[in-house]
Amino acid sequence: MDIFEVFGKRRSVRQYTGDPVPREDLLKIVAAGHTAATGYNKQPWDFIVVQDRAMIQEMADRTSAWLAQAGAIIVVVLDPSTRFWMEDGSAAIQNMHLAATALGYGSCWFEGTMLPHEEYFKQRLAIPPDRRILTFLPIGVPADWPEGPKKKPLEEVLHWEKW
């Protein structure tokens, strides 16, 4: 799939078949995140790939039930002492979304209902206290590929030279 097709196809997928995601595909997805742009080359990220069904179920039980069917969850951990940790983490996550899509998997940025449980998951996953979980990134075989939201026409949001 060409990169421009990937841009158009990427969706937030929240329904998975429960099938496992092969380790070699997970490595490709995480490698895509690892190659993201990073301010001052700080690379403030670490990635924890969770495939253990019991842990995925625990993550779902504490946050949202639909996570339980993901084939894996990538926990994106950042060092908040770096100046651009949010931007760097976001770039890594976007790369992983695109890589997952290119490989035929669904993914979804999952943060909102995780944040109240961040300290719990930091303990469960042995994440150092000075680090932050930016998101869970569930990866899985989509049960269905959702239709994308209707985007504004490009002509409506694109400006040349000035507003």
Please describe the structure with a list of short key phrases separated by commas or semicolons.
163 residues, alpha+beta, NADH Oxidase, 4-stranded antiparallel beta sheet, 6 helices
What is the succession of H and E elements? HHEHEHEHEH
* CATH architecture call: 3-Layer(aba) Sandwich
Q: Report the biggest beta sheet as strand number plus sense, adding barrel if it closes.
A: 4 strands, antiparallel
Alpha carbon gap, first and last residue: 34 Å
**CATH class categorisation:** Alpha Beta
In CATH, what is the homologous superfamily? NADH Oxidase
Please provide the count of β strands.
4
* Total number of helices: 6
Write the layout of secondary structure elements.
Elements: H1 3-9, H2 23-34, E1 45-50, H3 53-62, E2 72-78, H4 85-102, E3 106-107, H5 118-124, E4 132-140, H6 154-157
Antiparallel strand pairs: 1-2, 2-4, 3-4
Helix pairs in contact: 1-4, 2-4
Can you summarize this structure?
The chain has 163 residues and is α+β, with helices and mostly antiparallel strands.
Describe this structure in words.
- This protein has helices at 3-9, 23-34, 53-62, 85-102, 118-124, 154-157; strands at 45-50, 72-78, 106-107, 132-140.
- With 163 residues, the protein is of the alpha+beta class.
- It has a single domain (3-144), classed as NADH Oxidase (3-Layer(aba) Sandwich).
- It has a 4-stranded antiparallel sheet.
- The chain is globular and about 50 Å long.
- The model has no long low-confidence stretch (mean pLDDT 95).
